[in-house]
Amino acid sequence: MVNFSPLSFLADPTFGYRLCTKRAVDDGGVSDINLSSLVSCVGGVGQRCVPSLLREFAAYFAVHCKLLPDDDGSRGIFVPNYGLAEHVVATCGENEGLVMSRRRPDLASLRYWGKPEMSDETFRARLDPDDGRQYLRTGDEAFVERGRLFICGRIKDSIIIGGENYYSDDVELAATEAMADAAARPGCIAAFALDSTDGENEYLCIVLEIRERVHTAERENLASKLKTRVAKTVGLRSDRVVFLRQETILRTTSRGKLRRRGAIRDAMVSGELQVVFD
Description:
alpha/beta; GMP Synthetase, Chain A, domain 3; 3 domains; 12 strands; 27% strand; globular
């Protein structure tokens, strides 16, 4: 569409840039596509921005525009985006790994129906030490460095194993990079912790969709490659890798995004997922 209409603004989730790059690879290039009208190219849109993917996208599509910044610090038009809908008027100070909190002028009117304690905890949270003001608790963990806010991930999606905290996004990215697109469906993956049989410990479980054309004999080798990549990249052992039937992983009904990792974990425990390899 940008090629036929001089648009200046483009926003797309991460999987959209991945899809465009894959199409460019399959078609042998995109020399006939002109993106010179773009002033701002927003990425992420509710998903993590993957630098390696953006560089690959730029290698094909930055023919008529500068998508990424140069080594000299000059600005590119690509802008990572965080999809928090709430209006931000203040933020917490410069610290590492803090729960991200925001100030809003209408906090006093926000509440969960019939849940006053949860409402106070979420919409009228206090900082430690208390500065006398109320904040919205977003549910994300983040830190501020040199005046810039870095989002680490959702607190509910963090994986705690052996007393160490890991971000599920990091595990899922490493697993995705280990699997060829021909074998696994990008973005159709979830990593979470499960209780051991004795209930005393937790272990890492990675669930992902696999394409139907992958033969049964290949699946064990693919699982082994995935475990190796996650161990080298994240430093965490993948005790369990589960392949699901294509197009069966749980998704939301509104936007087609994956359901919360907690929901997928619960479905895994209850045996509701369509497993083809475990």
